[in-house]
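FIELD: query
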Amino acid sequence: MKCSMRTQKSLRASDVIATLSRIESIKQQRFIGELNRQLATDPSVCRLSPDVRERLNEVLNEHPYGNPPVNLATCHSQEQMNVMVAKTISDATRIALTRTFDAKGSVARVA
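FIELD: result
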């Protein structure tokens, strides 16, 4: 009796994850989740004064993917996502410091 070979492969979890990680809307959700995680744990953000943090939140609400926006199509791994998010936070912090400086007419303090 011959054993028939299956022509259909079973889906492995890694295959499913690899496929889903290519979908743009999922990348956007991952980016925002990573952004929130880094904002909560980044020591440089925690050291900012309350005024600057408020401005930082305003900047990120206006441009959650950065200004100019990051190209999520070029993101193929979690490490790349982390770098993109860190750059977005860094750029937004610079803008927030500038806005705080302009609003107060003096240098914004970093606690």
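FIELD: remark
The radius of gyration is 21 Å.
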